[in-house]
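Quick one, T. Sequence first:
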Amino acid sequence: MSLQHWRRRLEHGNCQITEPVSCPQGKLKKMKIKAVRTSLYDIPPEVERVDAIQTFVSMEFPFVEIEDADGVVGTGFSYTIGTGGEAIKQIMDAYLTPILLEEDASNIDRIWNRMWMDTHWIGRGGIVTLGMAAVDIALWDLMAKRAELPLYQLLGGARAAVPVYNTDGGWLHLSEDELVRQSMEFVEQGFKGIKIKVGRDSLHEDVARIFAVREAIGQEPYLMVDANMKWNAREAIQLACRVEEAGLFWFEEPIEADDVDSHVALREKTTIPIAIGETIYNKYVFKEYIAQGTADILQPDAVRVGGISEWMKVAHTAECFGLSVSPHFLMDLHVHLSAAVPHSLFVEYIPSLDPVLEDTLTLKDGHFSPPDRPGHGILFDKQKLARYQIF
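Structure tokens:
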């Protein structure tokens, strides 16, 4: 029926709808979940990755496929750096899948809150949140596929490309010469920034390495350092005071992530921007950092905060307080989230999924562009994945 017809019926007080309202191509139909399939892989890193507190020995990769009644499949995933993957899969199978099979896949926020509350006694972070993240990512992938949109456009579409910085050559075990050489190579390849790890046994070594890289790459490329929570406030302040002249773009995870008060002390002693977030598992801790003004750049990891839903909430809250976001790890997913919001800074280059992908991201003028395929557009090679399957 025409718009004029409905207007005439409303004008005469007869507004009962007697004909169904159609949805173009069925995009807005309910999405009843028909099946949930989980699996677990263990993908070895292509290079040795060592920081101040740990070695990245393997990437356990819990994986979930959520299929709706029309046969559309959304894929989601989580990760660990060597422990806990089997427990995450068990949580998805025992506690999260039953919730999904009772729900409409389009009710993503409702599902997220059910998962949060139904597991609150054992959850609120850690392996439960990592399992929730895999489910939430799959639901958003499914939603975007149903809408026939790339994920970044469904979430906001603020930009078409995002700057990239390289972490995958700044590892702590490298000698100073190796660190300098790789940093120069990454600048020549077009990366907008370089991040190096700090936290060696000697503070003098850290200082020397920072200034050596800065001298080698020049003043233009962004240089960041990451301590991976190695120090207390006193030690972090010592390092910050000694490298003020290096022009660091940020000082990342200098102190234990749950110790907000120590970050307050550090913030009062340095002009170097403080970045924090990869080891924060919910929006409430991010709120404390924002409220106390102790961080300049938030680095939520969509897996560690429980998925895309929570990542976006953290990002929008940061924007309200004039803070930037720069997500941690998982560049293939985070390129979408960074492109969805206007106040994101970078995507972090660590090609952890490249060994199991059909198609990888391409650096162009120092930027990554999200795939223009519907959903998150990450194309997993099933044969390559099968080599690393555990369950």
